[in-house]
Amino acid sequence: MKTVSLFGMPVAKVTRAEAVERIVQIARERHAAGSGGRGSYFVATINVDFVCNAVRGWPFRGDRELWGYLKGADFVVADGMPLVLLSRLLRDPLPERVTGSDMVPELCARFAEEGLPIYVLGGTAEALDAALAKLREKSPSLKLAGSDHSRVSLDDDPAETVGRINAARPAILFVALGNPKEELWMGRNAASLDVPVMIGIGGSFNFIAGRVKRAPRWMQRAGLEWIYRICQEPGRLWRRYAYGLFKFSWLSLLTLCGAYREEK
Question: pTM of the prediction?
Fold first, then answer.
């Protein structure tokens, strides 16, 4: 699989359809092989927020643990037009943006076709129930192996939660804890999880349920979805997006000038 390195992270040069097919194939093969304590196939859908949380580059700090998990993930896709645009400027273009929010309903439809069960960690029961109702309108055979909406703390012993997930034997684990918490949780527990595939999905089930509206398609394609999100929640999001835009622009400029260096 061809990749482009962006801030040390190997981003796969795939379309959304190719990404979905790869995830389904891995889940099908590993689920059919049965349990074996092999750990979980880690899928990361990175965007500007991920970069700002994880990557260090003077004078900005980053989270070395998170960056290490993203760098070492089994499959990384670009869930953000700025990453796609940067790859084009580097003359090693990604084919398109591959968003987790778009992949989740497609994955659920394919998993229903394959008879593969899903498990959801995080989010709310109400959002999941509403999302499942909509998903099952098109895919009535979608199987929910289990869900866990209890409060997850990175400081707690994860053994009980991991045990429940493993006992349910899902083909895929959707982790809805938000970045960076969900990636840190997956990275720390990947070796203990006996689940074919795991992927962080943030608030995807809120989108599917209609609780949070996504930007119009033209804004998504133009990389302007962040403006729509700020308009929805200006008080909570404007500082985060302003910082993210500034930091990502600076890191990208360093990269384009050949001055960015991965900090060891």
Answer: 0.94
